[in-house]
What does this fold into?
Amino acid sequence: MPDSRSPIGVFDSGVGGLTVLKALIERLPRESTVYLGDTARVPYGTKSAEVVTRYSLKNAELLMEHGIKALVVACNTASAVALPALEKALSIPVVGVIEAGAVTAAKVSATGKVAVIGTPGTIASGAYQRALAATRAWQEMRVKSCPLFVPLAEEGWTEGPVPTLVAKEYLTGFIDSGIDTLVLGCTHYPLLRGVVQHVVGPSVTLVDSGKATAERVETLLKSAGMLNDGSTPVNRKFLVTDVPERFLEVSARFLGQRLTSAQQVDLKFS
Ligand code: DGL
It folds into this structure.
């Protein structure tokens, strides 16, 4: 049985979830973590809900073998389509990024006009739309998939003319008429925060689901008496399903520090 010293499991389709892990480490520095990036099967954002759910269950199964006390589904696409299946399959708390992001958006929006950007899978699932609708009454809710943001973030093209042009193409005309809150509904989008803010203007508040999720994990563990008291050393494990080189190479962009090692694991699909 996991106890308060057990690690928190975090999974994503690849490297992007390191933005969520970063927020989690900042908020809960005394917690040990096991991060799994399914780099062999990335991207999830363009795959069907059925396939993403199958991959997500396998990721969770592997993390459970590490004795985790809670599971954070860092991937927005997996959170959008696989959360009910994960909650059903696991006996530990499962936290997705979507509800936390929606609750934050509901708090910060003054005009009641909100927009969400994410992968095609996340937007098509309607998960953000439902989560937002559950929080409060909205004057307006707009959604848009911005698939090119993912490769741009991975390539490190997060400022300058290319991402600015792409952001303008996606967001001009989409963010208008009093929308004051924009949810960055994808692990990779916080890297493009500067460009997105520049394009949508200073009056729009950008909501980063990672930070909101970390707060939620803290609340949940606190109320269950499962927060680590810091009496044991912190341990951070990084697992990937493809060879680790590329993951390590781009890790600094997402985590703020370059990782030097990650263990390659096999998910064993039958
Ligand atoms: N991690 C995914 C998400 O947040 C983005 C990358 C992918 O498509 O797998 O939706």
